[in-house]
Amino acid sequence: MSGIRGIIPTGLSPDVIFHSLMAFGSRLKGNTVVIGRDSRPSGAYIENIAIGIMLAMGKNVIRLGIVPTPTVKAVVAQSGAAGGIMISASHNPVIWNAFKFIGPGGFFTNAQDLEGLLDLVRKEDYKPFQFKPNTDVEDGTDRIQAHIDSVLARVNVSAIKRKKFTVFLDAVNGGGSFVLPELLSRLGCKVILQHCTPDGTFPRPPEPTPDALKQSSRLIKKSKADIGFALDPDADRLVVLSPKKGAISEELTLPLSFMSYLASNSIPKKASITVNLSTSFVNDWVADSVGIPTYRSKVGEANVVAEMIHRKSVFGGEGNGGVIDPAIPSFGRDSLSGVAHILNLLALKGEDAETVIGSLPAVHMRKIAYKIAGQKTEQIYSKFRSAFSEYKEDSRDGLRLANQDSWIHIRPSNTEPILRLIGEARTKKDLESLLNKAGKIMENS
């Protein structure tokens, strides 16, 4: 969690907005802040409050307008700004909104920094307004190109242009509605636009799941597109659409992107990839093919990035469609990075999307939520440890039990009295066996 979110206007009320921004402004150790938003109807209202408060606190503002979250992060890093604010509730429904707070270097605030912000809010211990006559609001539109440039620098643009790809794009009318078509245009692609009008409506469920993408899956099959992509509202997550299959598992976005890195770069000594504990072992399969290790972190972008820095990983990400290329200044989940890398992979291999996707192992994974009101998670964990005694244990983030052919990860929700369970196996039959075993444990808990 990198910020504060709630329903408009009750959860993210004017008081919450004011106090959150005052706390963030009080902690900024510099004079410039970057502000962007997705397309939610409440975005303009919150954006204007944010600009006003930052100006009143003596900060210059770089206003980006409707952009992806990774673009705000990249501009913070590239401009040397003190921090940034992305106004977006990510894949939550349109009645929600949120602040994603970004610190120096374009990194999300971590749990410790967020707790510091909340402590200021509790105490209302803010720096006083100190408006300076020379503070200004800069139209940061031109800075968006620098983010795109950094993405293009990571791929073979000439090879992609020669292919003249036709690309289907579903941006859910969100933050990627302008920037992703611009990226594709600069890659010489013909773009079939679907839901790329940021008018404050989400024409499908905002989380890009296969169910949410049924219409786009039908449309790409009827089109002459070579490949398709779908985004969430703040465009940090990416799902691939196949011309024959429609939406494929979001778990394949990261390994496909990683294969592009491997095809484009000589692999340094001690190279590694980092993913989170709930991410498919298809990534391990790709890494093993070139003899490099896969490390795992706690769930959450900030945790993956911290582990990548610690391990000096050449690539990383999360199985929810989040691609992290550390050489791009967003240094976090970035749909622009994923799009460019996957097109790069197709161009360099000279194969169509179906062939490249088909070269990867199938993903047999399922996510289940169990109600646990009144039950202690440690007691449930103990039963899982006994039932899966031959599995290797990782308790950094809930409980993950794994062997060579399957794994199960159990984590309590931060917001609901439920336990989230994710399981993966090499075959569908083994997955059913794994989940049946887990289900019996939960029934008797």
Written overview of the protein:
The chain has 445 residues and is an alpha/beta fold. Helix content is 38%, strand content 22%. The chain has helices at residues 14-27, 43-56, 69-79, 111-123, 141-152, 157-163, 179-186, 214-222, 253-264, 282-289, 301-311, 335-349, 353-358, 377-387, 428-443, and strands at residues 3-7, 32-37, 60-66, 83-87, 96-102, 137-139, 166-170, 190-194, 227-231, 238-242, 246-247, 273-276, 294-297, 315-318, 322-324, 364-371, 392-394, 399-402, 406-412, 418-425. The strands form 4 sheets. It has a 6-stranded mixed β-sheet, with helices on both faces. It has a 5-stranded mixed β-sheet with strand order 8-7-9-10-11, sandwiched between helices. The model has no long low-confidence stretch (mean pLDDT 96).
Helix/sheet category: alpha/beta
What is the count of helical runs? 15
Rg from Cα: 22 Å
Q: Quaternary state, please?
A: single chain
User: Which strand order does the major sheet show?
Assistant: 1-5-4-2-3-6
Q: Judging from the principal axes of the Cα atoms, what is the shape?
A: globular
Main sheet summary: 6 strands, mixed
Q: Tell me the helix content.
A: 25-40%
Q: Mean pLDDT across all residues, rounded?
A: 96
Spans where pLDDT lies below 50 across 5 or more residues: none
Question: In percent, how much strand structure appears in the residues?
Answer: 15-25%
**Span from first to last CA?**
29 Å
Number of strands: 20
